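User:
Hi there, any thoughts?
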Amino acid sequence: MTAKRKDITRDLLQELYIHKNLSVYKMAPILHCHPATLSKKLHKYHISIKHPVKKINLAKNELKELYFTKKLSTYKIAKLLNCSVKTISNKMRKYNFKGRPVSKPPIDEEILLNEYSNKRLSLKEIGIRHNLTASGVLKRMRKFNIPTRDSWETNTGIKIPFKGTLEEKAYMTGFRLGDLGVRQSSKKTKMITVGSNTTKNEQVVLIKNLFKKYSKVWVSKPNLIGVINISTILHPSFSFLLPKNDNIEKWIRANDKTMRAFTAGYIDAEGSFGIYNKRAKFRLGSYDKNILKQISVWLKNHRMKTIFVLERKKKLGQNKDFWRITINDAKSLLILHELIFPYMKHKKRKMDLKAAKQNVVSRLRSGTIRI
């Protein structure tokens, strides 16, 4: 039984279908589903069809003039009349018109290999250069035994493999565990679909900046309650984002720099800094008990005074207890700033941490605290 595609939301469809003016056929490979699935979704969400099918009135003499006298191709006639090539072909059969002999423009194997493999042009782009259809280019590629690109490239554009540092990988992992939904689009393509819903513009900017150098990122308009959907499809090399376990992987914990980056990512997703009663405070809460415990141990190893407690027992309808790390100690906040600030990417979190540090420094100068 095929799973229902809950990730194809009304906002996502409106963004692609209405605002970006993509057809269901162009959206289908992007979202990895059949066009019929998208048509059903459009109907379900009451999104009006942009170009409902209408009957084309094409007289026999008019078609004869366009095809035989003016020598237009069925593709050009279809474009001229704003209809499909299939409609023109059906009219040709209805009027018993025989097609003109097909000429096959020559294309050199070396040129084809260079344009497809080196210049990374699509079949359509190559076809335009050589007066061929995309299928015509594909036939010549098969003739020359030129291998085609993987489907994850041809369907949704070029996906750049992950080539970042271990620190970048650790940050992404921490941020993913805190805030991102990640799944494999299909076993065949092995592409990685990443998405999130948020009401905070800083979160949208962070996610977009995090992935835009690797793939196109889609951002919807806010819905009626201000929720923004943001999503992207990544190269299979981002499979390290797939696991959703309540545990920090050993390769991250084995190195202090990767642990700093991971913690910064997790804090950007789940943490907060604030000034309460003129005193700075750090709070980090989630349902991931083991992750928080491992972060707490790491913080203590860096001479920070932390409070790690069960804040809320699970209630009916909730799967887990809610846990929290809190830091009130002034010196500990300064150490935390030194360790993670260089790795943080969330604009507001960075501003809040900077304000927390300034609060501690101000209290030190006034003599109200000592460390």
Observations:
- DSSP finds 17 helices and eight strands in the chain.
- The CA atoms of residues 175 and 265 lie 4 Å apart.
- Strands lie at 181-184, 192-198, 217-219, 228-234, 271-276, 279-286, 307-312, 322-327.
